[in-house]
Design a protein that fits this description.
Length: 158
């Protein structure tokens, strides 16, 4: 997704905790929607909203859409991930501080797998198998949690 596309996007209103829309199991995206202009706009708007709000990731339930769709801000740009599934989570874990655009002003340590592989469909409809570690692995786990109705505050480490 390129910068020009993203700059044309609109900022969507964020769903703020507590809200039952953050606690639902999100539904798989029908890939026929990839050709739908409204769905394409949704992905662009999610990217724009994430960047404007200084987020590193955003999940569709955070703007009130109950779909298995996330956007992640990487060193190489914003990547939409449709129907993401995680595998090969490392037994090695790391604890780091997290926050969330839907849980303002709350930060806390969360233990996450250090490495994983994320399988998803990109905005061009291509199947991607992305090995991730470090911050990227953490952000992906945080965002995929949102698709299962889970917030980072549910598993704060002591
Ligand atoms: Zn979040």
């Amino acid at each position: 997704m390129d910068q020009k596309q993203i700059s044309s996007g609109r900022i969507r209103r964020l769903v703020i905790n507590p809200d039952s829309r953050l606690r639902r199991l999100a539904q798989p995206v029908d890939l026929a929607l990839l050709k739908d202009k409204k769905f394409q706009e949704l992905m662009v708007d999610m990217a724009k909203t994430m960047l404007v709000k200084d987020g590193v990731g955003l999940a569709a339930p955070q703007i009130g859409r109950n779909w298995r769709l996330i956007v992640v801000n990487t060193d190489e740009g914003v990547w939409p991930m449709i129907n993401p599934v995680l595998s090969d989570l490392s037994s090695a874990t790391v604890v780091e501080e997290e926050g969330c655009l839907s849980v303002p002003n709350v930060f806390g340590p969360v233990r996450r797998a250090k490495e994983l592989v994320c399988h998803y469909i990109n905005d061009l409809g291509q199947e991607v198998h992305l090995p991730a570690k470090g911050t990227l692995a953490r952000v992906i786990q945080h965002e995929v949690d949102h698709l299962d109705g889970v917030l980072f505050i549910d598993h704060l480490s002591q």
